[in-house]
Amino acid sequence: MGKRCSLCGGKLVDNVCVECGLDNSKSDDSYTWGKSTCETKPMTHVHDEKEDPLAEKTMTEDARRAAETKKKQRAGYDNKSKKNTPAQILTVLVFIVTIGGAVIPWIGEKITQFQEPEQEVWSSEPVMQQDPYFGITREIPETGEPYSVTLGAGLYKCGVHIPEGVYRVALEGGSGSLNVEDEVNYISLFYSFGSDSEIEEIREADDVRIYKGALVTILDNVTLRFETENAQMELGGIANPNTESRTLEEQFVVGKDIPAGVYDVYCEEGSGIFEYYIPMDGYDSYEGKLIGDSQSTFPRTFKNVVLPDGVEVTITGMKVTLTPSEIIESVDYDKFYSDM
Asked: Are residues 165 and 209 in the same domain?
């Protein structure tokens, strides 16, 4: 048997190991385990990572490449298996705590947004009402004529049935409401008149500004007195061309059973709702007027009811008389509702 490699026991060719590439022509004491020239105990010495294990070793080119490849593979394996140092672990923990400290309050805020709101606490302090005439650019002239009129339930057009002016409105009898709607000047006024303090009814209202074109509606069994010192008496109504009254006690169709027009509706017997629908842009607008005879608490007459052609009117449990109103705005009855 020939001489073997002193390092790995492999076969030698020209004293160079074909297995590990070691040149065995050099001193065996430099390569044999436990016989290193390093001044340490055998089998306990660990070389520094920076030391080149190929330094001062004579190898063939192929053997050197193979050894370098193994070296690189070992270095890669060592890097993959290297454990995190305590400093690195501490850095990661600090990062997690920092992010958590910022994210957790944000999550809490989002959860709070989806919680039910607390019950609103009602205050007994009075609420300041906005000026209903805020932004009006045209003032009603201060000069004019004294004017007064007593009105009950019905629809009244300013400039047709009553003149423009700044009114004082006082309760004369009963209980009910006054509503003033002015589409041009964006005014909407509402007053509840009566003597029942539990529902905050009033007995009079001052500075009620009624401009030409505004619609005044009085509802329920109430009588109101309108007074002004600056009435603008340019009224533009016309006499009603209809003159025939009709008494009815069941459903009827305007244009078929009675002519289209403007009527004062008077309840002869019973009580209930004089109701009908007006076709508007894509929907039907409900109109209902409460009326009743002397035995009811409803107003007996509702004035200036505008009934265009084709409207179906329902009256249940009562008999009514339709009398043409004295003064009307025009014979274009559909326009009355399109202007509302």
From this structure: yes
Token reading at 321: 């008389």
Give the residue from 192, 231, 199 showing the smallest Cα distance to 212: 231
Tokens representing 32 are: 């044999």
- The one-character DSSP state at 272 is E
Write out the DSSP string of 206-222. Answer: EEEEE-TT-EEEEESSE
pLDDT at 34: 41
From 78, 104, 131, the end of a domain falls on: 78
* Average pLDDT over the chain, rounded to an integer: 79
Q: State the CB neighbour count (10 A cutoff) for residue 28.
A: 12
Instruction: Please say which residue of 231, 258, 284 terminates a domain.
Output: 231
- The tally of domains found in the chain comes to 3
* CATH (domain of 151): 2.60.120.340
CA atoms within 13 A on the CB side of 40: 10
Please work out, in degrees rounded to the nearest 5, the angle formed at the alpha carbon of residue 146 by the alpha carbons of 140 and 151: 90
Tell me the C-alpha distance between 212 and 158, whole Å: 5
Q: What angle do CA 338, 156, 284 make, to 5 degrees?
A: 30
Distance of CA 336 to the CA centre of its chain: 34
Q: Are 23 and 67 in contact (CB under 8 A)?
A: no
Question: pLDDT tens across 65-113, in order?
Answer: 555 555 554 555 444 444 455 555 555 554 554 555 555 565 555 555 5
Handedness of CA 108, 111, 115, 120 (dihedral sign): positive
Distance of alpha carbon 241 from alpha carbon 331, whole angstroms: 8
Query: Mind listing the pLDDT tens digit for each residue in 119-132?
Result: 555 554 545 568 99
CA dist 104 and 141 (Å) reads 66
